[in-house]
Design goal:
The protein contains six helices and 23 strands. It is an alpha+beta fold. The two termini are about 25 Å apart.
Length: about 475
């Protein structure tokens, strides 16, 4: 139960804020959680925390009470169970040293068994049940979030609970004992509730910190690449947002050069790189173009940026006999294959309006001669494309356009090719077949990652200073 209680606090602590501080390792991804997002996480944390807390057993309470004319009565409360908690008001505020969460006006219902015994000439005992109603309960806690060698460390700075009003209703037993039990046990019940809740919160924070320490320095994307999620610089919490910077660069799987983040103090003014304006959003995510270029480099070096095009209607020499007559003359009515591969990592640039990419491609044209592929020409091309991401129905989608491309002949076994004649035909194929096919694939989208059943929602994109800025809300994803 302690593991899940206040687990959603991770929503408040796993989102990030960019700062202008100096460190040995740079950061390229930053995320700001704004006031709207902080309140969203707070409400979720309180809701999930209450559901995980109930039912909650308090320790048994014992006391000895002297009652006039009766003597010493030994009283016991057992099976004390917290069955219901309602919160009327809560608030969270990023402070100078951490996050402050305050719950006020809370009420709680408890049930318990009571019993007594006293000794005169005979041993006399009795027992029954009781219900306890707690009103105007207040809970407050302050936590700090620090960067400890590249991992986030969560520490409970302070925690307190105050039960202002307590009402006990007895069932069973001797009526003359009622007031004695109320007098003897009210302060003990009050204290037990306060101490138990504080201890429970302390255990939860410790377990959450242990969970944070298990977060790896790199997250696997696929069997080729992973992303370095080492924390860089100290997290920043102010009156408006909270967050942290991470390295964010892609790396080849198997690489072990993820450095520990070394943080130095800085007196520079803290300023968020993410500005979302109005309408207010829960979070802002900033991704530098170097993240995209690091992915480009990793996948290029892995040798996965190549593909083969075959079994297409236009890939037969009969369709090229007027454009490349020597090809048709040497290989009449022969099927063709295009072997396309990137000759260098694509260079990605984030402009003020889109994400642009320059892709250098080497296209080898092969002809099937008696079933065997024979290279006949190699053409060097550079494509420039622009794209824009979008989010719809819990999936990230996108579209691209072809801006321009160039072609140069590298080698040929069928004589000199007139590139000026070939290029328009290739452009028609690209614009009418290639780009629409890519956009069809992008329109299907990829499912967005979720956390505890929540994912980003109603996101909008902007491009500022070589960074992609995504301003977003969160919402619950219904299970199908």
């Amino acid at each position: 139960m302690a593991t899940t209680f206040f687990f959603p606090v991770l929503i408040l602590l796993s989102v990030f804020h960019s700062i202008h501080a100096q460190s040995v390792e740079e950061s390229f991804i930053s995320v700001d959680l704004f006031k709207k997002g902080i309140d969203f996480g707070k409400d979720l944390a309180v809701k999930k925390g209450i559901s995980a807390l109930i039912p909650f057993q308090l320790p048994q309470i014992e006391a000895a009470v002297k009652i006039p004319l009766i003597g010493t009565v030994y009283l016991t409360l057992s099976n004390i169970s917290l069955n219901e908690v309602n919160v009327s008001s809560s608030s969270v505020q990023p402070g100078d040293t951490g996050l402050i969460l305050i719950v006020s006006g809370a009420s709680a219902s408890l049930t318990m068994n009571w019993g007594y015994r006293y000794v005169s000439v005979l041993v006399i005992s009795d027992n029954g049940t009781a219900s306890v109603q707690v009103e105007n309960m207040e809970v407050g806690l302050a936590v700090s979030l620090n960067n400890e060698e590249g991992n986030l460390k969560l520490t409970l700075l302070d925690c307190g609970c105050i039960v202002n009003d307590l009402f006990i209703k007895m069932d069973g037993g001797a009526s003359w004992l009622y007031q004695g039990i109320v007098t003897a046990f009210e302060s003990k019940i009050r204290s037990a509730i306060e101490v138990s809740i504080v201890e429970q919160i302390g255990d939860v924070i410790t377990e959450l910190d242990s969970l944070l320490q298990t977060i790896p320095r790199a997250v696997e994307i696929d069997n080729v690449a992973g992303i370095n999620i080492t924390t860089v610089n100290e997290p920043v919490l102010d009156g408006y947002s909270l967050g942290v910077e991470i390295n964010g660069l892609f790396m080849a799987m198997g690489e072990s050069h993820v450095n520990k983040s070394v943080v130095t103090n800085s007196t520079k003014t803290i300023q968020s790189l993410v500005s979302c304006g109005v309408p207010a959003k829960m979070a802002g995510i900033s991704i530098h173009e170097r993240v995209l270029n690091s992915a480009s480099s990793v996948y290029f070096n892995a040798g996965v940026m190549n593909f083969i095009v075959r079994n297409q209607t236009f890939l037969n020499t009969v369709h090229w006999k007027h454009i490349v007559p020597r090809l048709y003359k040497k290989y009449p009515k022969a099927d063709m294959i295009l072997n396309i591969s990137a000759s260098s990592p694509p260079v990605i640039t984030v402009t003020s309006e889109s994400i642009d990419a320059a892709i250098n491609v080497e296209m080898t044209v092969e002809v099937l001669d008696e079933g065997e592929p024979v290279p006949v020409a190699c053409i060097l091309s550079m494509f420039t494309i622009s794209g824009n991401p979008s989010i719809s129905r819990d999936a990230i989608k996108g579209s691209i356009i072809l801006n321009d491309f160039t072609m140069h002949l590298k080698s040929s076994s069928i004589g000199r090719l007139h590139i000026g004649m070939v290029k328009p035909f290739i452009e028609i194929i690209l614009r009418t077949v290639g780009i629409p096919y890519v956009n069809l694939m992008l329109s299907w989208g990829s499912s967005l990652p979720g956390f505890m059943g929540y994912t980003i929602h109603n996101a909008r994109f902007d491009y500022v200073d070589s960074r992609i800025i995504m301003c977003t809300d969160f919402h619950h994803v219904k299970k199908v």
